[in-house]
Design brief:
The protein has 155 residues and is an alpha+beta fold. The protein folds into two domains: 1-40; 45-147, Roll (Nuclear Transport Factor 2, Chain: A), CATH 3.10.450. It is 43% helix and 28% strand. The chain has four helices and four strands, in the order H-H-H-H-E-E-E-E. The chain has helices at residues 5-39, 45-62, 66-72, 83-89, and strands at residues 92-104, 110-121, 126-139, 144-147. Strands 1-2-3-4 form a four-stranded antiparallel β-sheet. The radius of gyration is 30 Å and the shape is elongated. The N and C termini lie far apart (95 Å).
């Protein structure tokens, strides 16, 4: 090998070129990964509040806590939960509350949520189902999400 020093140098140069190519590929992959991760959208505080709100609403519906349910409806009044209505609502039990889809407005000021509610009448053992289209709106004054549609009607 000492009789051909140019061969030793050629191998050395080839190894350096391969290492440079690997470094270039790694830097390119790292750059692409950085761009992709930086473009990912992280939920805003308002969107986190939206998720908390609709999940609390769902739990309140399942547990028949109609005071909480009514509190989410921005145009509702306490007369909707009179003693007569409370007695009537006690005959219904929500057995399923499935969110079918959610579409949030790009401005994050409103959202439409389609929900399937399954419930049964305890007095007649009749299972029913209704599909609700909930229109959620962000209230700047109250700093919370509210429902624009009326209180659901159980029949």
């Amino acid at each position: 090998m000492l009789s051909r020093p140019w061969l030793l140098n050629a191998n050395f140069v080839e190894k350096i070129m391969i290492n440079n190519q690997l470094i270039t590929i790694k830097l390119l992959a790292l750059s692409i990964l950085t761009i992709v991760l930086s473009s990912c959208a992280f939920p805003s505080e308002q969107m986190k509040d939206f998720e908390k709100s609709y999940r609390l609403y769902e739990k309140a519906m399942r547990w028949q806590d109609f005071d909480i349910v009514l509190g989410f409806h921005k145009n509702a009044n306490k007369s909707e939960l009179s003693d007569v209505n409370r007695r009537r609502l006690k005959q219904f039990q929500v057995s399923g509350y499935n969110v079918l889809f959610i579409r949030v407005d790009p401005s994050e000021q409103s959202a439409t949520q389609m929900v399937e509610v399954k419930y049964y009448n305890k007095n007649y053992n009749v299972v029913r189902e209704m599909t609700l289209t909930n229109l959620w709106e962000w209230s700047e004054t109250k700093q919370r999400w509210e429902l624009a549609n009326p209180f659901p009607v159980f029949e």
